[in-house]
Give the backbone structure.
Amino acid sequence: MRKPDVVCAEIPSRADAIANARELGEPEPGMLKWTRICRIDEIPRLGARVVRRGVAPNIAVFRTASDMFYALADRCPHRGGPLSQGIVYGERVACPLHNTNVELDSGCAVAPDKGRVQRFMVKVEADFVYVDLEIQADGNH
Ligand code: FES
């Protein structure tokens, strides 16, 4: 099986990463608690994997055709449909229930739909996908 090509952002220095996180209002790198989710090839391109969190909403980890990974709460901003079962295209997912389109990088519904889904920090390292299951990408718990 061919090893997937994974596109990763250039790794900034720790000082740059902290400065970037502060500028974006995101958690500082040292605060993140990474949980290993699965191997990269366990999430198909244009697919998703669900991470169950007990009483907290599940998290859907998406993989795009260009091997970018995103993690969003698995709840559509419209009526809570399972985004993990939606159709991934480009950098978006279309909800399977009523077709609300959600931007994977921001979690925002695409106009004319409204709303926003919680998003979580993701990293890919040594062929594995990691997610911080507690801290949302905007720094909220
Ligand atoms: S629940 Fe997702 S579009 Fe309605």
The first helix runs from residue 14 to 24.
